[in-house]
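Hi, here's the filled form for the chain we discussed.

Project: internal
Contact: R.S.
Residues: 132
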Amino acid sequence: MIPVKERKFLIDNTRVELKNFNFIPIVLTSALKNKGIMEVINKAVDVFEQGSKMIDDKLIEKMVLPRLVSNPPSNRVRYMQLKQSGYLPPKFDLITNVAKDVSDTYQRFVINEIRNYFGFSGNPIRLTVKSY
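And the returned structure, exactly as it came back:
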């Protein structure tokens, strides 16, 4: 068994090294001691279920859209709509009147807001920006 302090060190260092993949859960295992195998299986099932979710448009409008509207990507953006367009991995469309004003930073903000409200643990979220 790995001591708690060393386990924390391993997890923290892994998170630092894989900072762009912070949505991926980390599970420590030992093939030598046959530890953590069921946890890996349970986590894999959870990741699949998270990636299979389809969020109702009305729930997105109620939970996420107000945050986006109160923090628009530019002062030229007058219209925004967010809809889930697919799953495995989750795909969302951000529709706005000025798509070119939606920076990579703003797209990360949108993805983080989606994660804050709906999870999708272990799944990359694909975001497409479109003009209407």
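Let me know if anything looks off before we file it.
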